[in-house]
Amino acid sequence: MTIADTTTADTTADTTAAGDTAAGAPALHFAGVRKRFRDGTVALTDTDLTIRPGEFVSIVGPSGCGKSTLLRIASGLDEATTGTVDVASKNVGYVFQDATLLPWRNVHDNVRLFAELEHLGSAERGRRVADAISLVGLGGFEKHLPHELSGGMRMRTSLARSLVLDPSIFLFDEPFGALDEITRERLNDELLRMFMLRRFAALFITHSVAEAVFLSTRVVVMSGRPGRVKADLAVPFDYPRSPQLRYSAEFAALCGEVSQHLRSES
Amino acid sequence: MSVTVSSVVETDAAAGAAPAAPPTGAAPTGPRPRRRGGSLVSLVLLPGVVFAVFVGLWYAVSDGVLNDQQRFMLPPPHEVVRIGFLDWSNFTTMMSALRLTCEVTFAGLAISIVIGVGVAVAMSQATWIENSLYPWAVVIQTVPVLALTPVLSFFFGFALTSRIIVCVIISFFPIVSNTLFGLQSVDRGMHELFSLHHTGRLTRLWKLQLPAALPSMFTGFRNAAGLSVIGAIVGEFFFKQGEPGLGTNLSVFTSRLEGERLWATTLTASLLGVAVFVFFGWLSRRVVGRWYQPKRG
Fold it and tell me: Nearest C-alpha of chain A: how many angstroms from B183?
């Protein structure tokens, strides 16, 4: 991760916390990002993308178009070959494709992990863990081990683990991709509830056009490998969004438009 | 003279060492899935049938193949039981030897676990440490203990200390290899969880790698447990000063041609090996069985 200017980064963090959505510096900014792997594959090319505080941006695109790479670069797990990435806050949540829970820790202790790694005080930790667990609706399951949970519950645990740190930027790498349709829709509703409550900036990767449109303020369509931004569509629906939105004509029309961009060759 | 005894040792060593070979493709098995074989009948009946066949073969060799002058090499099972186990004075001698062998086994195994885990943790921290030490861990495993006996006796005498050292030499490799394997095969995604928060080595080791490695560590402990019994007996066989252990007695009975007591001692030694092996299987299920379910297949 390249943080070009740390001083501006810090001031932006404040704005983010205040939930200023209108103006202010971006929460996350990619400029001319290109990623070439050691084996020569170019995953990303000339990618420019800006996410403002309070925005929920989804990325859809064909498999292998470098969507995940973009997140890995934003989180610092990978570095861009060229280009710059500005991340306004150090407090970034990252939700992986798999729940990646530690199998020997129960729900409560898994949720506590990041709080431990960031050395939060134990009273503060206890309060935040309890909050996060009840926010994702896992109250009563604190003592369960990951293998005793359903896929949806494992993903809730994973969400709670990141929520504990109350991140101002949230990166989601296809978190609900492996879940069945009903569980996925329910988790979408709940994710929006958390988004309303915590007002983080979100970058969300998905294969599902409907999921992208339902969740986001903007949907970004990426091209096939090497990936770059092909289209950037605003989603006009107001929050809070009711589950019924999915059955409206406007929703279907927008999904159609996104799909069209996905299929188009340019 | 040592033919009989070394064959005992070899058989056990082969059984113990096979799964202890450096894990390559196959993951350590950990505690076995219990439903593997099916019904209770087949789990009890089939081994029982094998046991009956084994005893039958024993009688066949003892009575059919060997003549009266040779029978001391493999006396029939009932004689082994009568003289070796049911004779009170022989039995008490054996029990005190068993106690001593247990002491050597447990001391050796404990030292192996401490050194083995320590060495594996060191290796997991840097490739250069792994590259420097691993070949020598293999060498210690493969060096014939017989060749070391003069050196060991020079430094540590002919008694308990040397026995324990032999036990350590024989048992520590599977602990190193399995622990290292466990520490190194932690899921990449889990490592990234810790990387996201810029976690230091020690925290990563303590909160991620060691707990994740526990199942394969227990596989190593279990294999080492079997080997440590062999190690104790081999140690006692070479270093006979002080109180006799099972290994000492094996050597004595061999030279006196006391076949019945020799076989009784051999069986006791095997049972001790099985007991520690089973104990570690149980301990492993207690510690990691709650969250670790080995894949069946």
Answer: 14
Those residues with Cβ within 8 angstroms of residue A19's Cβ, 6 or more apart along the chain or in another chain: A53, A54, A199
Which residues does chain B have within 8 Å of residue A75's beta carbon, measured at their own beta carbons?
196
* Each residue's pLDDT tens digit, B183-234: 999 999 999 999 999 999 999 999 999 999 999 999 999 999 999 999 999 9
Closest-CA distance, A46 to chain B, in angstroms, reads 25
Q: Which range scores top for mean pLDDT: A2-6, B42-46, B162-166? A: B162-166
Is it the case that residue B25 has pLDDT exceeding 70? no
Partner-chain residue, chosen from B187, B195, B211, that has the shortest CB–CB distance to A77: B195
On whether the CB atoms of residues B224 and B169 are closer than 8 A, the answer is no
Instruction: Check B290 against A145: CB less than 8 A apart.
Output: yes
CB contacts under 8 A, B 163-202 vs A, are 187, 189-190, 192-197, 199
ipTM value: 0.84
A51-71+89-263 folds as Rossmann fold (3.40.50)
pLDDT of residue B20: 36
Q: What residues form DSSP beta bridges with A36?
A: A42
Amino acid, res. A151: G
Chain A residues within 8 A of B194 when measuring between CB atoms: 117
Cβ(A1)–Cβ(A87) below 8 Å: yes
Instruction: Kindly determine whether residue A116 and residue B293, on different chains, have CB atoms separated by under 8 Å.
Output: no
Superfamily of domain B88-288: MetI-like (1.10.3720.10)
Identify the pLDDT of residue B174.
Answer: 95
Nearest chain B alpha carbon to A92: B196
Q: What secondary structure does DSSP assign to A33-60, as a single string? A: EEEE-TTS-EEEEEEEEEE-TT-EEEEE
- Where in chain B do CATH 1.10.3720.10 domains reside? 88-288
Shortest distance, CA B118 to any CA of chain A (angstroms): 22
Model pLDDT, residue B295: 58
Closest CA to B115 of B182, B186, B167, B184: B167
> What's the gap in Å between the CA of B213 and the closest CA on chain A?
11
Residue B6 has pLDDT above 90, yes or no: no
| Domain boundaries of chain A, sorted by first residue | 51-71+89-263
Ranges of chain A with pLDDT below 70? 1-24, 265-266
Q: Kindly identify which residue of chain B lies nearest to residue A1, measuring between CA atoms.
A: B196
pTM: predicted TM-score of the whole model, two decimal places: 0.81
CA-CA distance, B287 to A153, in Å (whole number)? 25
Residues in chain B: 297
CB–CB contact B192 A145 (8 Å): no
d(CA B98, CA B92) in angstroms, rounded, equals 10
Q: Which residue of A has its CA nearest to B195?
A: A77
Is residue B28 over pLDDT 80?
no
- Helix H or strand E encompassing B141: helix B127-142
For B20-32, the three-class secondary structure string (H helix, E strand, C coil) is HCCCCCCCCCCCC
How far is the C-alpha of B242 from the C-alpha of A155, rounded, in Å? 62
